[in-house]
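REQUEST ID: PR-0412
SUBMITTED BY: lab tech R.K.
PRIORITY: routine
TASK: structure prediction, single protein chain
INPUT:
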Amino acid sequence: MNRRARTTAAAIASTAALMLVACSSGQIKHAGDAGKIRSHPSPAMMSLAKRPSDNYNTLAISKDTNLRMIWEDGARLLYIDRPSKLTPKPIP
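STATUS: complete
OUTPUT:
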């Protein structure tokens, strides 16, 4: 073998050795707990599209609307709701 072939072979062998040394088979360190992330990948979501605070806001709006509707229905039941003909709502 001539000198150039030996140099090329040595360069290839040392590159292969460095590539094998750089790889490790030990435990890989993650930024967080990988098992915890895999078991619950979206901890901030309560449903498919909402966070818990979004669900609580929706519930509060629903309760408020229902209470206002109860007062309105009570006024109709007791005949104290006397809408004028200028009301934007349809009169039953």
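NOTES: DSSP finds three helices and no strands in the chain.
REVIEWED BY: pending
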